[in-house]
């Protein structure tokens, strides 16, 4: 399988497209600029199977509806944020002076951790709250990848000053879930460059207590 990182929108939120050899793909966090994302998918002749959201903050959901409708896709979100998609007060857009951003309701609600199979894609869903109550990370074990959303970044961690954020909870999520993955696991974050579990274990100043 291969993945591509596509920064989208004013906050350059990372959308990821994970594709297999049959050109099927799943899309993580289509945050904005749907035309740019759709153009990429069309150029690659990919066949999207699903949209997977790590959480429902506005900068991760802005292109959901366009991409969903273009390809008739299911949308996955954790149950603790299923109502955030439609509510600019919950997803944070009304607080940033950029207008109201929302998306339609998700089709598939994640209620617990476990394996998620979509076509040939096998992903383990970890609940990693703290940045937001329903944050999840998607772990592709065979590929050695984890899509961490805004939980963990290269050299940093997610902010916890937005509604539902909890700093202590976020550190616990990172320690008990993400830091337990193999050190060579590539961490694909919601913003910035990729990193590895081992690199963050050794160098991330926010994790020195673990």
From TrEMBL:
This protein's UniProt keywords: Hydrolase, Metal-binding, Zinc
**Cofactor(s) listed:** Zn(2+)
Q: Which organism is it from?
A: Priestia iocasae
> Where does the Metallo-beta-lactamase domain lie?
12-191
InterPro entries hit by this protein: MBL_Glyoxalase_II, Metallo-B-lactamas, RibonucZ/Hydroxyglut_hydro
Q: What is this protein called?
A: Glyoxylase-like metal-dependent hydrolase (Beta-lactamase superfamily II)
Instruction: Give the top-rank taxon of the lineage listed in the UniProt record for this protein.
Output: Bacteria
Q: What is the lineage of its organism?
A: Bacteria, Bacillati, Bacillota, Bacilli, Bacillales
